[in-house]
Amino acid sequence: MTTSVTIDLKPTAHPLSDAERAARMTNPGFGRVFTEHMVTIRWSAGRGWYDAQLTPYASLEIDPANMTLHYAQSIFEGLKAYRHADGSVVTFRPYENARRFQASARRLAMPELPEDLFVAAVDALVKQDHAWVPGEEEQSLYLRPFMFATEVGLGVRPSNEFLFMVIASPAGAYFAGGVKPVSVWLSKEYVRAAPGGTGAAKCAGNYAASLVAQAQAAEQGCDQVVWLDANERRWIEEMGGMNLYFVQGSGKDARILTPSLTGSLLPGITRDSLLRLAADRGYATEERKISVEDWQAGNADGSISEVFACGTAAVITPVGSVKSTDASWQVGDGGAGPVTLELRKALLDIQTGGAADTHGWLHKI
Ligand code: PLP
Ligand code: COI
């Protein structure tokens, strides 16, 4: 899909000084500091996409009867911009995010933003706020495109008006411990998604519904929740905001498994990239259903040597231990395994310009 909508650039008249920006970018953490600009594009049933602007970052005024506040027609994406050693800036596979955003929109009865307009909006913001793209190791500029209903009214039906936006946030490690392994809680009481539900969409409601299980994981002394399928509470789906990978065996004979896309988990772009990077390195890869029993038995007999989670925000994070209502175990030696670290480095090297981009994944801004 292509579009003739162009983004009207209205940058701030009073940009921050280099010193003020540097102060805000020190130890940015995740999602706490935002850059100086944002992109907004409106949609209405009568006009389609219109009024695309890049403006200073600012609050929005929201009517109390805004439909999003009541019925959650709201979707988002997450991708990162990286600074390379020569100072240039790239994003990673932004057209994949654009396509997933369209798929999320279809599921939530929202309009589909054309792919090139999604990418142009992200590009415009990164270009304007390029000084906010960190150059330090493990840091990047996290980009958050999102869209929500703006019509006012309490009737339960799709809104006739939407606002698409992009904001940006300099980001360090998602988990305070960096590549330190996380402990996970297998959620049997709560499920994230059911067949026919919104699990494959990146919609705000999925995250709201996850919070009580995440709180339960924390009560159990765990860092993250692992979701199981809704029907049997048996099949591993994914983690909080990340997909999961299992390493069977070791060395070059290792097999790399990830739960298949059953419709109730998010089709992660990092997940897809790792399937290819693992195959490039000669590993056998497989997308299949993996049960809790498979995991527990594979752990007990040593056949599952490593488990890790992957996603844009968290990159690759090892899983060190598992707890559920009836069992708990340590994964491998509880540390970050060699395959996990090899794939993490392979991905980060491409993203940050340390290795050749043989798949054509980088998009130069
Ligand atoms: N699963 C969920 C629920 C997520 O929120 C995310 C993050 O976007 C992922 C998986 C990983 O997806 P990606 O690799 O595209 O960031
Ligand atoms: C991402 O990795 O981009 C995510 O969206 C995960 C989380 C911050 C929601």
TrEMBL record:
Its EC number is 2.6.1.42. The keyword Amino-acid biosynthesis applies. It catalyses: L-valine + 2-oxoglutarate = 3-methyl-2-oxobutanoate + L-glutamate; L-isoleucine + 2-oxoglutarate = (S)-3-methyl-2-oxopentanoate + L-glutamate; L-leucine + 2-oxoglutarate = 4-methyl-2-oxopentanoate + L-glutamate. Keywords: Amino-acid biosynthesis, Aminotransferase, Branched-chain amino acid biosynthesis, Pyridoxal phosphate, Transferase. PROSITE patterns: AA_TRANSFER_CLASS_4. Its cofactor is pyridoxal 5'-phosphate. GO terms for molecular function: branched-chain-amino-acid transaminase activity. It holds the Pfam family Aminotran_4. CDD domains: BCAT_beta_family (cd01557). Pathway: Amino-acid biosynthesis; L-valine biosynthesis; L-valine from pyruvate: step 4/4; Amino-acid biosynthesis; L-isoleucine biosynthesis; L-isoleucine from 2-oxobutanoate: step 4/4; Amino-acid biosynthesis; L-leucine biosynthesis; L-leucine from 3-methyl-2-oxobutanoate: step 4/4. InterPro entries: Aminotrans_IV, Aminotrans_IV_CS, Aminotransferase-like, B_amino_transII, BCAT-like_C, BCAT-like_N, BCAT_family. Belongs to the class-IV pyridoxal-phosphate-dependent aminotransferase family. This is Branched-chain-amino-acid aminotransferase. The lineage of its organism: Bacteria, Bacillati, Actinomycetota, Actinomycetes, Kitasatosporales.
